[in-house]
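Table 4 source record.
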Amino acid sequence: MAVSFGPLETCGPTARKFEAAEFATKRIQAITGASEVRLYGSLAFDATMQLTFKLNEADKNAFYACYYAAYGMYKALEIPETFFAGESSVLDKVDFSDFPDYLRWRWAAKPSHETLRPDLHRLQANFIATLDIRS
């Protein structure tokens, strides 16, 4: 069961960095210089997304609560649509309609924050979209 962030009062991310998923490939080069690329699966994996937020105290605590509820990277996350959309005045909406639906978002690293002033924090959240083995 996926872990949810719950409702956030503060706006969406103020910065976003996204790396597309990759495929399991290997380039094999002969001593003559000729090479061949092999594909070891038809599904992509390990897309990454790094988000920066300016949050109030309650929303900052919601991120940490989600991290601990997910046991770090162990459980999958339900990432709100606003994380992808951002705030229209700050970030353009990214179209994730062609994003592979078989990938599951997880924490890639512990969330970290710096306090800008009382009740205002800049939080960094790193996520990874993993290809899970289904049993």
